[in-house]
Write a structure and sequence with these properties.
Blueprint lengths: L4 E4 L4 E3 L4 E4 L2 E7 L22 E6 L7 E6 L4 E5 L5 E2 L11 E6 L2 E6 L6 E4 L11 E4 L2 E4 L5
Parallel strand pairs: 7-8
Antiparallel strand pairs: 1-11, 1-12, 2-10, 3-4, 3-11, 4-5, 5-6, 7-9, 9-10, 12-13
Length: 150
């Protein structure tokens, strides 16, 4: 069994394709846009392709479930997540704030920012990670706080 650990972000962090993060009780993943398969049909039909952020978010039905859920494709360079406002809304999750976090693309870099939520945003740790006094970890549904005795 592999233990998955997440670290609460304190400042905006750069995320890459495949990175996972937790918002409330939701596990989300940043992925590359799928190759578009839409185009003109055989009839003389024209279409307009809107600029899209270079990522989409897939989410699962809570941290406990591992079946991949729906995907959301951003139209523009930001995607806001919350319980009542935003592009991706989780109205039934009491751990998700009204305006919880935002994922935005800036000059080819994708940033994840906490919008001063009460419960935080946690990014999956890959490899070694230096921990600081007061850092908060999420292992499963258990939260741990680093206390270096300072």
């Amino acid at each position: 069994m592999v233990t998955v650990c997440f670290l609460r972000i304190r400042t905006p962090v750069e995320v890459s394709y495949g990175d996972e993060f937790v918002v409330g009780d939701q596990l989300l993943r940043v992925e590359n846009n799928p190759t578009p398969d839409d185009g003109p049909d055989p009839d003389p039909t024209y279409f307009l392709l809107l600029a899209e952020m270079a990522v989409f978010i897939s989410y699962r039905a809570g941290v406990r479930g591992w079946a991949t859920g729906a995907c959301l494709l951003s139209r523009g360079n930001t995607l806001q997540i919350g319980s009542s406002l935003g592009d991706l809304i989780f109205p039934d999750d009491p751990l998700v704030g009204e305006q919880h976090c935002v994922v935005e693309e800036q000059a080819g870099t994708v940033l994840l920012s906490d919008l001063t939520s009460r419960t935080g945003v946690f990014v999956r740790i890959r490899g070694s990670q230096e921990l600081l006094h007061g850092d908060e970890l999420l292992v499963g549904r258990t939260r741990l706080i680093v206390d270096l005795g300072q």
